Amino acid sequence: MLAPFETVFPFALFVLGLVFGSFANVVIWRFPRGESLSVPASHCPVCNHPIRWRDNIPVLSWALLRAKCRDCGAHISGRYPAVELATGLLWFACGARFGLSVEAVVAAVMCYLLLILSAIDLDTLRLPNALVGLLGAVGYAAVLVTQFFGIEAAPLTRAGGGLASPLLAAVAGSVIAGGLSLGIASVYKGVRGRAGFGMGDVKLLVALGPYLGIYNSAVLFLGSIIGAVWGVIAAWRSGRGLSAKIPFGPALALAAVVLLFFGPNLWEWYAGLVGLT
């Protein structure tokens, strides 16, 4: 009976992701400003006219309206459909990777919160403690479900990289990644006299521990590579050189998503490359 639904499950998650992606846009805009996420209803930020239901269909309405408000003609940023589509695609990938399971739901929550945090970091150079804390809380709740009830929920990188205990794998992932990043931040500040690695980034790495287990230790490494490439491109485009402020959260988030889907495979490839296997 479940076989047909297992087949369509990723597609169902894709559609649901589009809808939740629309709400993600609300969180990205309102949460940093301390505004209510429910009141008032969605409205144009220029003319304040409430958005009609037919103009609030994820991705499609933006395309049909040609990226303009129906009432005042103000431009609607392409970020809105991009966030909706990204959420849908990420949730589809979670369904395809983990199948009809609790793990797929936990993975979808991880990707969803990372997407929201990345967009907020791009806008404000901040990773709100409340959202980072929510990410960690959901992850550790899933780990406890696995540890004490035997329901596979987390870590998502299969046994946390070889550690038999889900809780031990999660804690190890948080402590190693968080401790290493905190040490680097302390050294950098001591040498340069200014912060180069925000505490929000350290907290984000700690929060990712329950999802990635011991593979979380590789998030900082891969994120640094992504951040370095992105930093060079952003510095060149801004014309301010290395003085340009670059948010590191999105790089860490992208690295975490890559490791979520390919962590064990990347480790096997690397181990074979350096002769560890």
Set out the fold topology.
Layout lengths: L1 H29 L29 H5 L14 H20 L3 H23 L4 H21 L16 H27 L6 H14 L4 H22 L10 H25 L4
Helix pairs in contact: 1-3, 1-4, 3-4, 4-5, 4-9, 5-7, 6-7, 6-8, 7-9, 8-9
Structure in words:
There is one protein chain. This protein has 277 residues and is an all-alpha fold. Helices cover 67% and strands 0% of the residues. The chain has helices spanning 2-30, 60-64, 79-98, 102-124, 129-149, 166-192, 199-212, 217-238, 249-273. Helix 4 runs antiparallel to helix 5 (129-149). The longest helix is centred in the N-terminal third of the chain and has 29 residues, at 2-30.
Q: Rg to the nearest angstrom? A: 20 Å
Give the helix tally: 9
The biggest beta sheet reads: none
General shape: globular
Helix amount? 55-70%
- One letter per element, helices H and strands E, the order comes to HHHHHHHHH
User: What structural class should be given to the helix and strand makeup?
Assistant: mainly alpha
* Uncertain residue ranges: none
| First and last CA, distance | 42 Å
What characteristics describe this protein?
mainly alpha, 277 residues, globular, 9 helices
